[in-house]
């Protein structure tokens, strides 16, 4: 594991499909931290009202959960996690599917 070899964890992990074309640079890490250091950044229009598989910039602490979503969905443990997180949102008007 590269992080273990380097003796440090990444602050963010980027998930990007191989066919992603970058028209502009991603937002600066300082901006992501300033807006919300725990938020996962997904470009506008890439959320597809469900599970995004295109592009995401993920805080390191959430990377394993984010990248393991399909496995959690298949084994039945994702829905309870979503319901628990949904109950903790200050504005839950959009519905639990927005947490995917």
SSE topology sketch:
Elements: H1 2-6, E1 12-16, H2 29-35, E2 55-59, H3 60-67, H4 69-75, H5 78-86
Antiparallel strand pairs: 1-2
Shape: globular
Strand arrangement across the biggest beta sheet: 1-2
What do the pLDDT scores average to? 79
Question: What kind of sheet is the major sheet?
Answer: 2 strands, antiparallel
Q: How far from one another are the termini?
A: 27 Å
What distinguishing features does this structure have?
single chain; 100 residues; alpha+beta; globular
What does this 3D model show about the protein?
Helix content is 36%, strand content 10%. With 100 residues, the chain is α+β, with helices and mostly antiparallel strands. The protein has a two-stranded antiparallel sheet. The longest helix has 9 residues, at 78-86. The relative contact order is 0.15. The model has no long low-confidence stretch (mean pLDDT 79).
Describe the structure concisely for a colleague:
The protein is α+β, with helices and mostly antiparallel strands. The protein is built from five helices and two strands, in the order H-E-H-E-H-H-H. The longest helix has 9 residues, at 78-86.
